[in-house]
Amino acid sequence: LVNRPLENIETVKQLEDLLPLLRASGAFSISDAELEILTADAKQLHLETDYALVATGGPLFFSLYQVGQELFGYEKFFTLMAADPEFIHCWLEFLTSTCIERLEKYLNLLAPYLDVILMGDDYGFQNMPQISPEMFRRLIKPYLVRVCRAVKEFAPQVKILLHSCGSIAPYIPDFIEAGIDALNPVQITAAGMEPARLKKEFGRDIVFWGGGVRTQTTLIKGSPAAVEAEVKELMEIFKPGGGYIFCPIHDIQEEVPPEMIIAIYKSAAKYAPY
Q: Quick check: 58 pLDDT over 90?
């Protein structure tokens, strides 16, 4: 981004004056025309394929944390969380209310065809959580709880998948309490995200969706044999008792040769059966 759209908003009063304009802009809503197209596509995929159908949208659709960083700027948003919690609560109340409004319209039409809805909020750095668990519980979690409850009210059968990169193990009990059903990308290369620990401590209560091969190291510097060994090792940790969906850790980078990608999925097929 060249600049941050809300970087000059300094006070709660300025924010309160701006929120009606943001609501009227259409950026935080979903139109009937969009819903008509999405419903037709979802119905077709539901009827013509046997894949689980995952609903995903842009960050304005289903985000409570990262969208604030993007719009205000990361440094400013961190500063506001520490210095002006009233500002953050005002902002999150707006995001939560508009999010629930969108979800109600969206799920009232699409719920019969959906299996999973994806929420994207990166709460971790590679070496530590972005904010303390205490700050997360005080500022973010109450709103996350409300959004998850809304999904369960509008579409009880739809599972909630949270995409959150980095070192996020301290938040996982709170994600579970809030109503998150599955976690992606399971960045086992980040601090405190050891696979065996994650499975042992949280595997009964949340599905791990990812963590299948290290995309930052093994896929770039390894070999097909190393990929197979790693997939086998990680599957043996994550799959006992179920509650695991295999995929690599996040995106496969462009410099990864095709034979490495083929090795991932051949290995997954080889070691997946129980």
A: no
